[in-house]
Amino acid sequence: MHIVIVVIEFAIVLGLLVLIHELGHFIVAKLCGVRVETFSIGFGTRIVGFHHGDTDYRISLIPLGGYVKMAGELGGDGSVLNSEEERSAEQAAIGAPPRPDDLTSKPRWQRVLIAIAGPVSNFLLSFLLLFIVAHYHHEVDHYLNGPARVDYVPRGTLAAQDGLSAGDTITRFNRVLNPTWEQIYDESVLNLNRPLPITFLHNGQTHSSTFTVSVPPNTEFDAGNLMAEGLIPQMDPGPIQVLSVTPNSPASRAGLQPGDDLVSIDNLHPHSVYALLSFLKDNKGATDRLGILRHGQRLTLLATPQKMATPDVGEEYRLGFTYRPPMADIQHLPLGAAMRQSLKDNRDGSMLILRVIKGLFTHHVAVNQMMGPVGIAQQIDLATQMGIWPLLNLVSVISLNLGILNLLPFPLLDGGMIFFLIVESIMRRDVNQRFKEVVYQVAFVCIILFTFFVLFNDISRLHLR
Fold first, then answer.
1. What CATH number does residue 316 fall under?
2. How far apart are CA 359 and CA 353, in angstroms?
3. How far apart are alpha carbons 36 and 45 in whole angstroms?
4. Domain end among 274, 305, 325
5. CA–CA separation, 433 vs 72, rounded Å?
6. Which domain holds residue 199?
7. Whole-prediction pTM value?
8. Region of residue 320 (phi > 0: left; psi between -120 and 50: alpha; otherwise: beta)
9. Closest Cα to residue 388, out of 181, 133, 208, 172?
10. Over the stretch 132-179, which tens digit does the pLDDT of each residue have?
């Protein structure tokens, strides 16, 4: 029964995103005076729909996208022409002058606007969703406003050289007494690459030293810079809570289960995943003893971490599980602040997606780590169980992905159409339609093969319980 619910959740989310995307194409095409022949959610054979005016509004067999078929352009479902009747009509029309409402009769700048309207619609949806989240439910990590307790100090870092260790509390940072982590971040931003006085409480005794937050030129400061120097905050009062376990991972092989509390690893009691990852790095992949609390019962598991690819970081030792985020305080940002927060979150999300795409081409990210429809459906189900706000965040991420991926210069994608238009502008004539048809057919086959590849990866990663 649960699998049916997952399928329904996936269909609703994907249907909404495809509808928004194709609606962008549709609206701009209509504004430019282009006749739209088909508005389809899904590819392939028509299942159900209705005709209104010149347009066939339909739901098609393969529910992994959609398309808008405009007069004068090749079919949008990869078969290029959707039926024998359409193929015959197309053959009869070859050599005939384009009608005024054909796509090919419009200036290329209008065709570019039509092509880019779909991704822009996804970007706008992502902005709107994150704006709503920021205005009504902006989460600020609770630890930022509490005492600055250190969760772990990696070996060889500046903090380790100063004598700090796990469990210490910072009692002074620059001019701020008993600072919060938020105040430490603020002082660091204002005094980058400068030695600052720091005082901390270690085993009941006060120690003093200097601390320099080093940031490379033309680089924006973030919490990662502070962690790189060895100051990893204690982000939760309790242990790390396991949300899900990656199949065929060290965590899975060790017997870790969703709902477990990771209380300790060897002699460390981590309160953040950042502390855990730093400990694994220091331990260089050695087998670790995990202290687990499961349904009130204490267990000990043995796990040997392995290196896994991470975008923009490279390979690092991991166990292979997702965790419940740290405790957060809820804020209701004013409209202006909510808009700025949404823009920032979308910018950060876009940069991450671009880094992942770059990592695929530079072999820093493995292709078999990509998530397909099954994996996305699982994430949607997980977010739905967590509540409306995590779900809205996830939908915005998927929408952002959809917009960016559609701008890639690959045939059948919007970026492919824009690429052809740029080539045609340089050539000062249209690319031969028959050549386009062959290219689109090859591209469709490639997309189908890629879809089966990611589906295979998804299914192979399923955690059968």
1. 2.30.42.10
2. 10
3. 18
4. 325
5. 10
6. 150-233
7. 0.69
8. left
9. 133
10. 999 999 888 888 888 999 999 999 999 999 999 999 999 999 989 999
